[in-house]
Specification:
13 strands; alpha/beta; 255 residues
């Protein structure tokens, strides 16, 4: 089965206080741009085409980075002209052009090894009726859980709700998903009714429509994310640096 991927990279990175000149995906982590990490892991997991959704101001920076990857032929840059509508709208923009019915989705600021998206593909083989599969971690070691998106599940790891600040939850959202194209119709419906479209809104709406949304338990697979300057320092110089080392140890060759 061929699988494409969408990387959401249209955010402005305002919480990083100027690091990366507003292009969070371009900040250096272990001497390479941050976006190398999800891109490399997706390719190693077997993804054959990657659609990267970016805002107009950062398109040229992204194209500069893409030219250094050696995977230019696999990458298509998609521009979200309304990035203020948030990450769910970026998913919609990317989903309108993705060719495959089944595709992976990743945040551009998350660092994880190839075995994380591979785990999603394994779960899909056993649950082909699922519309969305969310990578969920019961006990993440390298993020700030208070800042994280949380997942409440019912029987059989079926998602009941997802969002920040949930009082009851079972998993932390690791920022990687497997989706069917049917999700884009849900996003279109929300975008007609709201100006801001969050990814969690799309998942919750899919649940409310009776679509099957499940968690792939990736507990034990190291991953982290960069949202703030504190995150950046922890990943480059502090306690989260081990995740970068694990991920890079799995790279077949260095870019």
């Amino acid at each position: 089965m061929r699988v494409d991927a969408i990387i959401l990279a249209a955010g402005m990175g305002t919480r990083l206080e100027g690091l990366g000149d507003g292009a969070k995906f371009g900040i250096e982590v272990g001497s390479v741009p941050l976006i190398y990490y999800p891109l490399r892991s997706l390719v190693l997991a077997g993804v054959e085409r990657v659609y990267v959704v970016v805002n107009p101001l950062n398109r040229s920076r992204l194209e500069e980075i893409v030219a250094t990857t050696g995977y230019e032929h696999l990458i298509r840059v998609i521009v979200n002209e309304e990035p203020w509508r948030e990450n769910g709208y970026s998913l919609l923009v990317g989903g309108r052009v993705v060719e495959e019915d089944v595709f992976l989705v990743s945040m551009s600021d998350h660092i994880y090894p190839a075995r994380l998206p591979l785990r999603l593909l394994e779960v899909f083989e056993e649950n082909e009726d699922a519309t969305i599969i969310v990578a969920g971690d019961r006990s993440p070691s390298f993020i700030d859980v208070e800042e994280a998106t949380l997942i409440d599940v019912g029987e059989g790891l079926e998602v009941e709700r997802i969002g920040k600040g949930l009082e009851e939850w079972d998993f932390v959202d690791a920022g990687v998903f497997l989706m069917r194209k049917e999700v884009i119709r849900v996003a279109e419906d929300i975008a007609r009714r709201r100006s801001v479209v969050k990814l969690s809104d799309i998942l919750n709406e899919a649940v409310s429509k009776g679509l099957r949304v499940i968690v792939a338990d990736i507990t034990g697979i190291p991953w982290t994310e960069i949202d703030t300057v504190e995150d950046y320092l922890a990943v480059n110089h502090g306690w989260r640096k081990v995740v970068v080392e694990v991920v890079r140890s799995g790279w077949i060759q260095v870019w």
